[in-house]
Task: inverse folding
């Protein structure tokens, strides 16, 4: 019975992943490729909670989150040797993480942007911000005062909010998780830092999930015209190519947002983090092939985050599962083991 249930749950999850494969990559970071302000100013298309397609997706999201929760309880911890060896590589992985973020900062600065392509440098204050970004990038690449660099990332984020606005910068809230990881996971431990080290990966995971949910709302749910304009230019509605003619561009845009919301929610809750993050990173690679250098540069932090979470899991802190008493979790696991 246990095998049949696991097969059913895995099959359902697989179906969601296949949907993610065809829908999500086509609309990752739409704002990087369209004139956002002009489109939002004249948009007339909106979704309603009462739309049958929207209601269907709400049901799918709720069901899939429940499946992810059950899989998180039922599936055993991975026993592959690579995960055991990963503990010995922590300092190396930390350096790889820091260097990757640093290179990302330097490349974005070279392209004249703070954090991401939409935040172009125009004013004197923004030139100061990109100067700070270059400094932080160099500190991270060469491993100089990385904890101070982590603090600098938060300051850069707050300064960017002052220049570009609070709402636009929510798309980059993921960087707060990056800063938290760099600060708390630093190889040099002190008495005051050991107490909080366990929060390094969970904070990285949670802010990654928040970023996905923010993107779902800011680029798809609330402003579907952004995705529609993108699809008009790139013609990436794969569902129509597969022969589903009634799958409109509007439905496609919402589906992409729904998948981002779903994967973000599962990340925040801490369910099956390795599987979730691996799938997210894998499907982001598709956009590399289709959209080129901008996607490669912009998604570097996502890939190095995926490396950390796939190797070390999502952490035991800030995890919904831990809120449920161990006895109740054991009963659920026993139910599926019969």
Result:
């Amino acid at each position: 019975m246990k095998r049949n249930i696991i097969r059913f749950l895995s099959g359902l999850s697989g179906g969601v992943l296949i949907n993610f494969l065809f829908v999500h990559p086509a609309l990752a970071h739409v704002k990087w490729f369209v004139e956002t302000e002009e489109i939002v100013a004249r948009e007339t298309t909106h979704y309603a909670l009462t739309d049958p397609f929207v209601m269907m997706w709400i049901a799918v999201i709720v069901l899939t989150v429940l499946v992810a929760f059950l899989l998180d309880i039922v599936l055993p911890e991975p026993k592959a040797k690579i995960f055991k060896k990963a503990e010995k590589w922590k300092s190396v992985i930390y350096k790889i993480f820091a260097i990757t973020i640093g290179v990302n900062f330097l490349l974005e600065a070279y392209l004249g942007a703070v954090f991401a392509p939409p935040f172009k440098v125009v004013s004197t204050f923004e030139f100061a911000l990109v100067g700070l970004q270059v400094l932080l990038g160099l500190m991270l690449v060469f491993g100089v005062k990385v904890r101070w660099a982590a603090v600098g990332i938060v300051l850069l984020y707050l300064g960017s909010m002052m220049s570009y606005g609070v709402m636009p910068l929510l798309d980059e809230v993921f960087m707060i998780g990056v800063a938290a990881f760099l600060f708390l996971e630093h190889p040099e431990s002190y008495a005051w830092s050991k107490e909080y080290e366990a929060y390094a990966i969970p904070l990285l995971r949670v802010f990654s999930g928040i970023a996905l949910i923010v993107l779902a709302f800011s680029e798809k749910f609330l402003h579907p015209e952004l995705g529609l304009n993108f699809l008009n230019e790139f013609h990436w509605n794969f569902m129509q190519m597969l022969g589903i003619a009634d799958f409109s561009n509007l439905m496609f845009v919402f589906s992409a947002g729904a998948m981002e919301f779903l994967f973000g929610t599962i990340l925040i809750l801490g369910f099956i983090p390795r599987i979730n993050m691996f799938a997210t990173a894998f499907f982001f690679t598709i956009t590399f092939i289709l959209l080129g250098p901008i996607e490669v540069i912009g998604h570097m932090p996502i890939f190095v985050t995926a490396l950390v979470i796939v190797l070390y899991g999502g952490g035991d802190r800030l995890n919904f599962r831990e809120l449920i008493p161990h006895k109740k979790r054991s009963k659920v696991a026993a139910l599926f083991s019969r």
The radius of gyration is 21 Å.
